[in-house]
Amino acid sequence: MVNLRIKSLEVLRHLPRVALNNLKDVPHSSWRKAKRILGSRREVNWPQKGQKQRQQYARLGFAGGSNRFYLEVPKEPYNEGHQLRRHYPPLSLGTLQLMIDTGRIDVSKPIDLGTICNTCLFNCEPKDRHFGVHLTAEGIDKFRAKLNIEVQYAKEPVIAAIERLGGVITTAFYNILCVEAKVDAEKFLKRGLPIPRRELPPEDAFEYYSDAKNRGYLADPKIIAEERLKLSQKYGYELPDISKDPDFAMLTYRKDPRQVFDGLRPGWLVNLRDKIVLRPTDPEYIKYYES
Amino acid sequence: MLRRVALPFLGRAGQRLSSTDIPEKHLDKFDVDNPNYTKFEVVSDPDVWSHVERLMPKKIVPPSPTEGGPSGWTPVRLTREEARELPYFVQRTRNHMLPVYQRVDIRGPRYVTVVRKVQGDPWALRNALKEHIKQIRGTDDVTTMVNELTQTVGIKGQLVEEVKDFLIMKGF
């Protein structure tokens, strides 16, 4: 028989740590006291005066207010809780092509949120819960670039437009701290903090980012290859063979799901003044930051 | 347990290589062999540093490309000599774009398409633009405005694309 104490400690080791994002009140800590009855109990239960004694209750249909409940204007609160939702500011394919034409974006290297924000032409505010870029289909007919792009949200026509030209698109999730690091990397590195480890998407976004149809970064690459072929058949174009492409290494490059910056691992520390990178060697650190 | 307290000093530890004047009370924080602080190694690989340099935002707008692209953007086609002979000139913005904007009146849908950064005679540009818009629309009803002080020319209506096409046709 396993020692219960050891077993529970082992379970505890795998449970999430207490942090600011999962703190909660102690159960039943906010219970109110029962209301004390003022005056005589008889008067409270059976009032001797007023509307209640004369039983002047409201007519049928009036539920507290001056409007009948069945005549009230129905509400459709589409924007309810908008401050808590994830927002993805849009970037159209036409604007992306314009950035490429004017030399703002280099197509010979993989493109991600950081590259788009470094042009200083795209506004992404992590403090307003902007979780990245939504690539929209506006200007889809003018798009002619072959690239490897990583965005946070894209729909089927956009995926088809990029893959038709021999490019690769991936949708990837960044938690808000990593978005902050990516949007203004210089500001983040000047703070002297280690490069964070990217968190996995939350429960309601996990399905999107693990679906091969959305080219999610958590999906199986084999299923993604099948879906690429299916999409080309659906839209009626011939899928270019990437394996024969001279930019094969660039097109097939993908970040680790826990990685934030290209070529830099989480936990590393960048010293901008002396132009060196510090890599922790403690096994505890390596274990904490490993993917 | 993670020794998180030691982390801020990791960043300063790199300065040890360049600066020699570390206060005596902080010397132990820069000691690599101190067991109280995180052990680290210095990566001075230029390949790794090239990745860091790619993260830095562009401080300067890149120079104007010599060729246009599929987005419809074109560089200025007029040469210096050709531009001198014209009665007017429209300067590009610092981002190599045409300074054509749409202004909206808050009260009611009243749109004015405005060309900024006009050099020379704005009336000549206004006359040429008016003729062009008349041909496109097929009517004589084209309302324009000219502001000589700010060197802007305006046309009533949502005509940004039309005005941009006209200016590109003229070589600006």
Automatic annotation (TrEMBL), chain A:
GO terms for molecular function: structural constituent of ribosome. Residues 90-170 form the Large ribosomal subunit protein uL15/eL18 domain. Pfam families: Ribosomal_L27A. Keywords: Ribonucleoprotein, Ribosomal protein. SUPFAM superfamilies: Ribosomal proteins L15p and L18e. One of its GO terms (cellular component) is mitochondrial large ribosomal subunit. InterPro entries: Ribosomal_uL15/eL18, Ribosomal_uL15/eL18_sf, Ribosomal_uL15_bac-type. GO terms for biological process: translation. Belongs to the universal ribosomal protein uL15 family. This is Large ribosomal subunit protein uL15m. It comes from Galendromus occidentalis (western predatory mite). The gene is LOC100900880.
TrEMBL record, chain B:
Keywords: Mitochondrion, Ribonucleoprotein, Ribosomal protein. It is found in: Mitochondrion. One of its GO terms (cellular component) is mitochondrial large ribosomal subunit. One of its GO terms (molecular function) is structural constituent of ribosome. One of its GO terms (biological process) is translation. Gene3D superfamilies: SUI1-like domain. The keyword Mitochondrion applies. The keyword Ribonucleoprotein applies. InterPro entries: Ribosomal_mL49. It comes from the Eukaryota. Belongs to the mitochondrion-specific ribosomal protein mL49 family. This is Large ribosomal subunit protein mL49. It comes from Galendromus occidentalis. The lineage of its organism: Eukaryota, Metazoa, Ecdysozoa, Arthropoda, Chelicerata. The gene is LOC100907374.
